[in-house]
Amino acid sequence: MKEVVERVMKAFAQKHQAMTPEQERKVRDEVSEFVAELLEKRAAQLAKFADRRLRETEPEPRI
């Protein structure tokens, strides 16, 4: 996640050259929170998908 935040910050800094350290800190915090939320959502999607695939591949119970 740290690499993602760094890439976003570099791209943002290229467009906004005159950021104060306080502005940079605020933007970094917001970007970190946003990326963390995205990763949480993605992890939930992947877990749901993995659970569904597991159920599809389980053999039917024999009676």
Fold and architecture overview:
The chain has one domain. By secondary structure, the protein is mainly alpha-helical. The protein has two helices and no strands. The mean pLDDT is 79.
Write the layout of secondary structure elements.
Layout: H1 2-15, H2 21-57
Helix pairs in contact: 1-2
Give the gist of this structure:
The protein has 63 residues and is mainly α. It is built from 2 helices and no strands.
Specify the biggest β-sheet.
Answer: none
Q: Structural class, from helix and strand content?
A: mainly alpha
Using only C-alpha atoms, the radius of gyration works out to 20 Å
Question: How would you spell out the order of helices and strands?
Answer: HH
The total count of strands amounts to 0
End-to-end span in angstroms?
48 Å
Number of domains: 1
Helical fraction equals over 70%
Report the principal-axis shape.
Answer: rod-shaped
Helix count, per DSSP?
2
What does the average pLDDT come to? 79
* Strand content bin: under 5%
Uncertain spans: none
Summary tags:
63 residues; mainly alpha; 2 helices; rod-shaped
